[in-house]
Design a protein that fits this description.
It is built from four helices and 37 strands. With about 475 residues, it is mainly β. The radius of gyration is 24 Å and the shape is globular.
């Protein structure tokens, strides 16, 4: 079998590791993977509104499941001293309704604040709404905030945000990060409904080994500060000395799968700073200072009707390495027709991108571009459906979504869900573009041919490709891309 599945294998491995670490069950079936969370456990104690949730958190002396009943007009802060003796779960009480409502609260408001050093917290099955930054300073007005540390010290780890309905915030639904001090680790954000936020649905800055799955994010970009990013999911490496950052930060191993991200940017079209379905970026003083690597976007994401970019990968001073966008739908993005795209890859000096790939996606109806690359390196966007059987244009030969120069698009899918390259005119065995005379491949990777100096007849590719080998050898073609059994 011929294809480009090395990164897909890495995606399955990453999901498997996350299922072990955070206790999430991941079912693989069809074109998508579905993450399911365990059923809610029994309550240790129940807090009935308007009683204080904070008082119960502070009195915790061991592992505790705090169940909520009613509408709470409160802020809750969880510190490392609260989780030192055991995990804390905050969830809806059985046969009850649990709502965190920030309406009218003064000052800088987050529903839940997790201080640096917190570990083993789960927040699930709640409605969280109407937290805004009444101080107009920016950064607050979140459902769940874990920003820090500001100096040396541990960040947060082992945090689950599951099955919440989070809407109408001045900033984010989920804000995790810092400006370059320590890495947050092992967050799972699964099964949430997020809407009506001023900035970002889910932001993981300087965060590693984490999963964002099966969330619905829509209609962000209604900011109480008068400006908006309007981003569905933001993954960021960040490290600026001017912000207190130090040394180097390498955020790595984040998987984003099965999310629906639609209609971002209702505050303005275009929004002041964004309208990105998914924003993958590394921002810092240098590529060595701030890095983001090994990001898997897929399978099963649906990114639709966002007015600038479906997925934007931008090395803004830092480095972004190893982003794989696979088996997702990127539909009708770039609706303002001002340089928008389903996928954009870019660099801002001294930032550097590398190993950015997109395979087996449905990329259709996007304006102005299906794939837009302004980075220095070529962007591998082979084996995608561009909305037309003759491939993308205008750099490509077809009438599908357009691509820019420096985008590798051949072979493409002749229809949605088809085998890669099948039926393309002039193909050999249906894989035109996988072969190229005398062109050396990239450095060898797992499952990749190590050299183009050998014709196909001398390379062991496994069973089922004898005819391809004979035809390719007769034509004098050489291996250029990964050919897997």
């Amino acid at each position: 079998m011929v294809g480009f599945f090395a990164k897909s294998s890495r995606f399955l491995l990453a999901i498997g590791l996350l299922s072990v670490v955070v206790g999430v069950s991941v079912a693989i079936g069809g074109d998508a993977s579905a993450a399911t969370v365990p059923a809610a456990g029994p309550c240790t104690t129940t807090v009935v509104a308007p009683a204080s949730i904070q008082a119960e958190v502070d009195s915790n002396s061991g592992a505790e499941t705090i169940c909520l009943n009613g509408t709470f007009n409160q802020n809750v802060t969880i510190g490392p001293e609260d989780t030192a003796d055991g995990a804390i779960v905050i969830q809806e009480a059985p046969a009850a309704t649990a709502i965190m409502d920030g309406t009218g609260l003064p000052g800088y408001n987050d529903a839940f604040t997790l201080n640096p050093g917190v570990s083993n917290v789960t927040i699930r099955d709640l409605e969280i709404r109407n937290y805004v930054d009444s101080g107009a300073s920016g950064g607050t007005g979140n459902a769940i905030s874990a920003w820090g540390p500001y100096g040396a010290g541990p960040a947060t780890s082992n945090v689950n945000v599951w099955n919440n309905n989070m809407h109408d915030f001045g900033w984010n639904a989920v804000l995790v990060g810092n400006s370059g001090r320590a890495l947050h680790d092992n967050w799972s954000v699964i099964g949430n409904t997020i809407s009506g936020n001023g900035w970002v649905g889910v932001e993981l800055t300087n965060t590693s080994n984490s999963l964002i799955s099966d969330n619905t994010i829509a209609n962000n970009g209604v900011s109480d500060l008068g400006v908006c990013w309007a981003i569905g999911i933001m993954l960021q490496g960040r490290n600026y000395a001017s912000e207190g950052g130090a040394g180097s930060v390498n955020a790595t191993n984040i998987t984003v799968t099965n999310n629906t991200i639609t209609n971002l940017g209702t505050c303005a079209r275009p929004a002041t700073y964004g309208e990105y379905g998914i924003y993958v970026t590394s921002q810092g003083d240098s590529p060595a200072a701030a890095a983001l690597s090994n990001v898997t976007i897929g399978a099963g994401n649906r990114i639709e009707n966002n007015s600038r970019y479906g997925v934007s990968v931008n090395a803004a001073g830092g480095s972004v390495t190893g982003v794989d966008i696979a088996t997702s739908d990127l539909l009708n993005n770039g609706t303002v027709a001002d340089g928008g795209a389903a996928i954009r890859v870019s660099e801002t000096a001294p930032g550097v991108t590398s190993a950015i790939t997109a395979h087996f996606n449905n990329i259709t109806g996007n304006a102005d571009y299906g794939a837009r690359n302004t980075a220095a390196i070529a962007f591998d966007a082979t084996c995608n459906w561009w909305g037309a059987s003759n491939g993308p244009g205008p750099v490509g030969p077809g009438s599908g979504d357009t691509v820019t120069a420096n985008v590798t698009y051949d072979p493409w899918l002749p229809s949605s869900g088809a085998a890669c390259g099948a039926g393309q005119p002039g193909s050999v065995g249906g894989i035109a573009g996988l072969l190229d005379s005398g062109v050396a491949p990239a450095p060898a990777d797992s499952g990749e041919l190590a050299s183009s100096s050998k014709p196909f007849s001398t390379v062991a590719l496994g069973s089922g490709v004898a005819a391809l080998i004979a035809a390719a050898s007769a034509a004098g073609w050489y291996a250029r891309r990964r050919l897997l059994n």
